[in-house]
Structure formats: structure tokens, C-alpha cells
Specification:
By secondary structure, the chain is of the alpha/beta class. The protein contains 10 helices and 10 strands. The protein folds into 2 domains: about 120 residues, Response regulator (Rossmann fold, 3-Layer(aba) Sandwich), CATH 3.40.50.2300; about 80 residues, Arc Repressor Mutant, subunit A, CATH 1.10.10. The relative contact order is 0.11.
């Protein structure tokens, strides 16, 4: 968790890793519009990223999966082994089962798609910095389809979530922070924290990645062009 003195903005330090300069510049433009975000460096590959880490100690690294001569997930694994305090979010145009599964296995903190909206990337960075994890629902669906072989028409499985908890879970899956959920449901932040804690306990998960996987597997959420279809 980030700490700062009263009146001081604690900047979230971001390192961007992608072999395409135009994408790095685009992301830099997006993040630098946020008051408490600071892009402290750009790297075109894993080797350069590792040298940046030594000198800058970023709070979060946003890294492409597919780079020339190296796999971003392999680089993420080295980073998490050597710098477990640094958050790593994978950013990819691909969401094949093996890549997503390996990213989760090496303890990446997030997996987002390159066609995600700018606002969604900002929200997910805040979720990750806040200590939770997140996976794009489309990537989660591809993974669950591979593992479970279910379809959108599969009946919903039984669960004991209340209607309010289901609404919170769907908003979690849409990449909302706890504060944003509180605003959308006209609740207090602490009330939402309690709902999230109860949801995790009831469905047997410990973070947002697992919660999204549960929701997708049990057909609690529906997707349209990567967006959650809300029915409330």
C-alpha cells in the first residue's frame, strides 16, 4: 500500500515494457494524464527492463507478452522471483490458454488486453497497486473454456451469493475498484469491502483473478465485445 504525508500525492511509478515504441508512447500519454501516475521509464524488452528496475524500483511494470526473442511471461517470472514487491501486469493482444495460464502460475498481478479502454487500464492499475489481482474477463473465458469445456448456454451453478453480492461481483469483473463499486451502488467504501470479503469467502477465492474465473465458469457474467453485460 502506498503511503504519503498529508497534502502530498504519492506517485505510482510505472515502467512500460513493449518492443513497439508507438504503443509505449500511447500508454505514456494515457497514464501521464492521471495526477498520481508517473511513467518513470520505457523498455523495449526484458533485458532493458531488468536494468531499469535496478535503478528506478517501479511500483508496477506493464509488459507486453510477445516480444522478439523472449516471452514477457518468462520475464515477469524473473521479476517476481527477484523483486516480489513489484507488481507486474501483462498486456497482450493474445489470450490463448497457455499464455494466460502461465501468467497466473508465475504470479503476475494482472492480465489485460491491448484493446482495453484507457479508463479500464487505469482502474486495473489501481486495483493491482491496492494489493489485489485482475484478469480480463475475455482471457478468463478463454481459459475456462479450455479447462471446462462449457458454453454460454450452460446453466448457472448453485451458489449462495445474495443479489447485492452478485451485483458487486459483476462490477468486480468489469474492472471496478472498491471505491467505484461504492459510488455505483450508493454504498460506503467499508460496506463494499465487507461485501468483497464475504464474496471471496463464499466462493472460495482470494483475489479478483479467481473471482473473475469463478464468475465466468459459472456463467454469472455475460460478455459482449469484451464488455460485461449488466442485467441489474
Amino acid at each position: 500500500m502506498l503511503h504519503c504525508t498529508e497534502g502530498e500525492i504519492r506517485l505510482i511509478k510505472i515502467l512500460l515494457v513493449d518492443d513497439h515504441e508507438i504503443l509505449r508512447k500511447g500508454l505514456t500519454s494515457v497514464f501521464e494524464q492521471v495526477d498520481d501516475f508517473e511513467v518513470i521509464g520505457e523498455a523495449n524488452g526484458g533485458k532493458e527492463a531488468l536494468s531499469f528496475i535496478e535503478s528506478t524500483k517501479p511500483d508496477i511494470i506493464i509488459m507486453d507478452v510477445m516480444m522478439p526473442n523472449e516471452n514477457g511471461v518468462d520475464v515477469a517470472e524473473r521479476i517476481k522471483e527477484n523483486y516480489p514487491e513489484i507488481k507486474v501486469m501483462m498486456l497482450s493482444a493474445f489470450y490463448d490458454f497457455k499464455t494466460v495460464e502461465k501468467a497466473i502460475r508465475v504470479d503476475a498481478d494482472g492480465y489485460m488486453l491491448k484493446d482495453s479502454l484507457s479508463d479500464d487500464l487505469i482502474k486495473v492499475v489501481r486495483i493491482i497497486i491496492g494489493g489485489d489481482k485482475f484478469i480480463h474477463p475475455v482471457a478468463a473465458k478463454r481459459m475456462m473454456n479450455k479447462l471446462g469445456g462449457f458454453s454460454d448456454d450452460e446453466p448457472k451453478k448453485e451458489h449462495n451469493l445474495t443479489p447485492r453480492e452478485l451485483k458487486v461481483l459483476k462490477l468486480i469483473c468489469d474492472g471496478n475498484t472498491n471505491h467505484e463499486i461504492a459510488s455505483k451502488l450508493y454504498l460506503g467504501d467499508e460496506t463494499v469491502k465487507t461485501h468483497v470479503k464475504n464474496i471471496y469467502l463464499k466462493i472460495g477465492v482470494s483475489n479478483r483473478i479467481e473471482a473473475v474465473l469463478f464468475a465466468v465458469k459459472n456463467n454469472i457474467i455475460s460478455l459482449s465485445n469484451g464488455t460485461i453485460i449488466e442485467d441489474f
